[in-house]
Amino acid sequence: MPTENRIGVIGTGYVGLVSAACFAHLGLTVHGVDRDEVKIGLLNKGIMPIYEQDLAPLVAAGKQQGRLTFSTDLPRMVQEVDTIFIAVGTPAQEKTGAADLSHLRSVALGLAPLLQAHRYLVIKSTVPVGTSAQFSAWLSERNPDAQFTMVSNPEFLREGMAVSDFLQPDRVLLGVETPEARAHMENVYAPLSEKGTRVLFTNIVSAELIKYAANGFLATKIAFVNEMASLCDTLGANIEHLVAGIGTDKRIGPGYLQPGPGFGGSCFPKDTLALQDMGRAAGMPLSIIEGAIVANARHKQRMVDNITALLGHDLRGKRLAIWGLAFKAGTDDTRESAAVFIVKALLKAGATLQVIDPVVTTKKWDNLALGESVQDTARLISADSCAASIENADAIVVLTEWDLFKTVDWAALKKGYKDSAFMPVIDFRNLYDPLTMGSLGIRYISLGRPSSVETLA
Ligand code: NAD
């Protein structure tokens, strides 16, 4: 018989693993299941399959306390638990951008015959409106006697901050259709609500849509501030002043107003595409979201153009130090990373790249999906320090806001410059103070700020 507050998690990726470890930390007994045997093998050996700040100690503690187990054994997990969280991927389909629900479907087909006794099935994956109903239909088609109640529980954690976001969320969102489901989920989340976390209940359809609305809004905010940064460059205004000027307005708020090389990662790009698809399919095109997608694509290309405007379109024979591949600091995730987009374009233009990222090491370069456009990945060289990355380099390009880069001793580093009079630092994260860089005699170019020597066109 399942004991209360024993939960299962299907999919131990970024969301599933964080959820499993955090629920165990909150006192629940958790069984994480994944179809990826390598991932489960690593977890069982005590090796983390991903890098996420603060996650490793939580996983280790959960396992040591006997509250967190991992396996590929779906039937055993279903036997042991009364609540099953589903956190498999929902990537964008290549042609339409619509969410690909094939992983969810395979979960439904695997679960259906196992649901002889009632279980709560909680979809944590980000899924289009109507997916919980679709999931329910897949289950019932496969096993008309399957016993279950659907719940929607979209996840709002940010990679890089995932553990603290899960344990101190702005809110927990639960889409339910019955009072029993509400009471059950109140109980599951009691360890958080007792500490003051706000738990919002809606119907399932609203919960599904809220997740996309939140990501659509945040992505739009980033696309907006990136366009403003480019406008600042053109007009001679300062993006930092602009952000302070608008971010202090309570109606706007300061979050997600940091300019960068373009939004990326495993959520904003695919979720904006899926939201666009949802709007179009509903006969209600979402012009703001569509605009944000276009603006972001243009912005990423503008970053490449900024580099080639400075160094030339033909980069054969040029060496660039690339600082960062992860889509943001605190994670090893490179999915849809603007850094990877820029790296691909620079390789295509013939450059040799000396790359440093503290967590996206060569072991993970297979995930970069550099594609056929890049014939010669021998021009992608791993550097094990910032100093090594600039050996014989013609420019430094800063793409991820890692602390390692923020704390660079520029006066010392500059001694290793090939040509100290010219070598520019092109910083798409605005990590350094232009005046300080100028006073060190460094040719410094950043986003939307007057630079030491020049501004971007
Ligand atoms: P991920 O790719 O890191 O992890 C998904 C895991 O599911 C993988 O380990 C995969 O092997 C496993 N899986 C796939 N099919 C399976 C099956 N049939 N049975 C068992 N395991 C299976 O994905 P992620 O980044 O954790 O995202 C998961 C979902 O959460 C997505 O819908 C995403 O949009 C959403 N989300 C992600 C984040 C984020 O920051 N990554 C934040 C909020 C929401």
Description of the structure:
- It is a single chain.
- With 457 residues, the protein is α/β, with parallel strands linked by helices.
- It has 2 domains: 197 residues, Rossmann fold (3-Layer(aba) Sandwich); 219 residues, NAD(P)-binding Rossmann-like Domain (Rossmann fold, 3-Layer(aba) Sandwich), CATH 3.40.50.
- It has 18 helices and 14 strands.
- The protein is globular, with a radius of gyration of 24 Å.
- The C terminus is likely disordered.
- The site of nicotinamide-adenine-dinucleotide has 26 residues, from helix 1 and helix 5.
Rg, rounded, reads 24 Å
Low-confidence stretches: 452-457
CATH class of the largest domain: Alpha Beta
Helix and strand content put the structural class at alpha/beta
Helix count, DSSP H or I runs of 4 or more residues = 18
Indicate how many domains the architecture comprises. 2
Strand content: 5-15%
Any idea what the CATH architecture of the largest domain is? 3-Layer(aba) Sandwich
Oligomer: single chain
**Strands side by side in the biggest sheet:** 3-2-1-4-5-6
* Helical coverage, percent range: 40-55%
The overall average pLDDT, rounded, is 94
Query: Tell me about the biggest sheet?
Result: 6 strands, parallel
Tell me the overall shape. Answer: globular
Give me the count of strands: 14
